[in-house]
Amino acid sequence: MTRTVTGTQRVRRTVAMEQSKDAESNPVPDVGVGTEFGRLADPFRRELLAHCYRMLGSVHDAEDLVQETYLRAWRSYGGFEGRASLRTWLYRIATNVCLTALESRERRALPSGLTAASDPPLAQLGARGPAEVGWLEPMADALVGLDSPGAGSQDTLSRNPMSADPAAVVVSRESMRLAWVAALQLLAPRQRAALILHDVLAWRSHEVAELLGTTTAAVNSALQRARAQLRQDAVTPETLVEPADPKLRSVLDRYSAAFERTDLPELLRLLRDDVVLEMPPRPEWYLGREAAGRFFDVQVFDRHRSFLMSPTGANGQPAIMGYQPGEDGMLHAHAVHVLTVTESGISRIVVFLDPEPSVLAGFGLPVTLAFPTTLR
Fold first, then answer.
1. What domains are there in the chain, each with its CATH number?
2. pTM for the model
3. Average pLDDT, whole number, for the chain?
4. How far apart (Å, rounded) are the C-alpha atoms in residues 171 and 309?
């Protein structure tokens, strides 16, 4: 797969330039101060990664910018006066780092955010799509602490909104959902930052205004426009099956089995009538069970290919790593299926085809596997 360079390379060039400036203007702190900073700041790393990901929609860009945030903070820690909490101070730095990076990059998107739904294919499709498009990337739950039972659940947050673990508050499943992150990318960067800081991190409007260098009235106006834009883009809460619900495990098992057995009728029984199917970097996307079924029939299940499916989690949602055999006789990680599972069935399938190695690494699953005899 051809890697897009519109985001990552520009971000890394920006990081390198800023590191050079910081090296000139901020002396390296002594060992004691640096050790203290690492001890106090490291617990916030995962939630800052989630924050930068919401801002940029890219895992590797977010990782780069978290690294830049910590470098800036470490160099400036000797002058930190404690007028705000360390966590707030780190968020200020991270937000500014993200806004600087966004000045020189295109927004990332899902296919449904770029074009109208495609007609069902009548024959196998060709090239996957333009390499210059920066596609949204899936964030492995393990990277932001959403891989443990109950982590980021709304019940936990409502019972204890001021948990001793700040990450339990800010890295909620709802704030990481693919549809939400994709919709955020449609907002102007400063508007995006205002909405995340206010609605996700619970900053007051005047605090957001201070960070952005504007007025409280301007922030409130930006929030109103951002929320209206999200409503226009049909980003509305759905009644999702909770991670601990046995029904979810049943759906995932049946979905995996349908692929491994190339059982199209079984797969279609799991889908809602209004299901959305998209597969970046393919630009096409499909709306409805019939259109999705036609795609799977023509493009996937007619090639007599073998699949192995392994459950995982991404963006606070159930996900499955799909493996396909390669010419070397091994199974290779080929796609990350991120599912939106509601009480009435699967409402959305986003299949990230041939994700970057840096994205795959976050899931902690093997990139290659021996070919099981059951699939031969």
1. 1-106 (1.10.1740.10), 109-186+233-376 (3.10.450.50)
2. 0.86
3. 84
4. 27
